[in-house]
Design a protein that fits this description.
Length: 164
């Protein structure tokens, strides 16, 4: 995609790369993960997570359409937050698993139909991603509008947003 974007400068192309999207209309492996019961975690590790509310993603799409310029833009949420904070806010119980056992445990839980992640997803906890949105802010005017607290709460399955 990126190579095509640069080979065709005459075509306006925008690639938005959001953090983990959460909200009432979102179904994703991440949302499934944080809504598991219990939630498998890596023993002694509390990764920082970047969550973005679906309403902020819609706003970013509108801003990108209005800007009419090409580019690749990260869409972070209102701030990074530790996994433990997300789990507490969602009233979920962590199940700490030693790092060395995590890929095998994830594979077994997935094969048993208990857990939506497989062994490849363990790396998403081991190597978390926190995005910089400076380019989206500078060129599109994108800033998350939904608060960090409300964005975290929106990760709970069935959560609805309080009107602003």
């Amino acid at each position: 995609m990126q190579a095509w974007l640069y080979r065709r400068p005459e075509t306006t192309t925008v690639l938005l790369r959001p953090a983990h999207i959460v909200g009432a209309h979102v179904s994703s492996p991440f949302v499934e993960y944080v809504n598991a019961s219990p939630v498998p975690t890596l023993l002694g590790f509390d990764p920082m997570l970047d969550l973005v509310h679906e309403d902020d993603v819609v706003n970013a799409i509108v801003l990108a359409l209005e800007a009419r310029q090409s580019g690749i833009y990260n869409l972070p949420g209102p701030g990074a937050v530790p996994l433990s904070t997300v789990l507490r806010a969602l009233e979920r119980t962590p199940l700490p698993i030693p790092h060395v056992l995590a890929p095998g445990a994830a594979w077994l839980l997935n094969k048993a139909g208990i857990f939506p992640f497989d062994s490849a997803h363990v790396d998403f906890l081991r190597y978390p991603l926190v995005l910089s949105g400076e380019r989206a802010k500078d060129e599109l005017g994108y800033l998350p509008r939904v608060s960090l607290e409300e964005t975290v709460r929106a990760a709970k399955r069935g959560a609805t947003r309080t009107p602003a």
